[in-house]
Structure formats: structure tokens, C-alpha cells
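User: Sequence in, structure out. Go.
Assistant: Echoing your sequence, followed by the C-alpha cells.
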Amino acid sequence: MSRRQPTILCATLVAVVALATGCSSGFDATARQSYAPAGGVQGSSGSMRVLNALVVAADDGGSGVVLMAVVNAGAEDEEITSVETDAGTVELTGSATVPAGETVRLGAGSDTSATVRDLTAAPGEEIRVEVTFGGAEPIRLRTVVVPATGEYASVTLPPEPTPSPSPSGPATPAETTPNPISSPSTT
């Protein structure tokens, strides 16, 4: 047996193992798959992309904050017309314009935010989120609800909207109630 045969045998064995494991080959290779390096999910439609989308549930479980980044890779501004979910009613506030070539982040304390009121999903459950635009096709995602703990502990909800009082004018004497501290005593 020559000295070259073990080297050729070893090289052949390495090649067979690489082919058998599918290492970086084909359309489903790990290196070719889309990967979001965060807790949320991603999706795209034309020049619009949604990155790292998830919902952070409040401690009381009745509402949540949608966290995501919306990227406009197009040449024209795009408008977010709505954010909807199958797990509650979404209230979109702030500027909904995504300028061309820029990213808008939605979250607690950001200019643009989306709050899920009457959240019916608990942390750990999967929900659907749909982001619709003025010009691009909607982006439909399946994401998760996470608790407001750990890295999400600082995510706080905006206050519940309060109904504005109707203008009824000044109170009349019949509408006022006496202050029990200042009323005369009858002892």
C-alpha cells in the first residue's frame, strides 16, 4: 500500500460525508433560508418589509403593544393604512407614512404605535397580524404574544383612551352636590 492511498481514501470519505449531509447545497440550504435574528417574524410585499413583528402583552393581559419595523425599499413614500389582528382591536396612532428608503419602528414610546385592545391571546400563543398599505399588497404574518418581562419589561402601553366630555356648559345648582365637610352641623 502506497502512502498516497490513505490520503485519497480520507479525501473521498470527507467528500461523501459532505454530500450526504447536504452541506450548503440546494434550494433549501440553511444558508439560503430567510432568518430573523430576533424574537419576531418577518414578511414582505413588493418594496415593503415588516421585520421582527411580535406583540408584547401587558401584565393584566387585556392589551398589548405591536413591536415591528416597517421598511420601505421603494422610490416613493408609502402609507400604513391599518394594522389588524385576529386577537383584538388594533389602534394605530402617530404618523403612518413610511418615507422612501427609510424604516419606521412601531412600539411603545415611538411616534408611530399600534396597540391591541381587548387582547384575547395569552403570552406564548400565536396570532395573525396583517399590515395594509396604500399602494402595496398587505403583509400577513403569524407571530407570537410575549409577556412584558425580561427584555420586554420596559415595553409599556399607552393609557386607555378616555371619552372626551360633552360640552354641556357650567353646572347648575341642581347638579352640584354639597360638600359634607363644609355643611353646617345640627348637633
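User: And one key feature?
Assistant: The CA atoms of residues 106 and 113 lie 5 Å apart.
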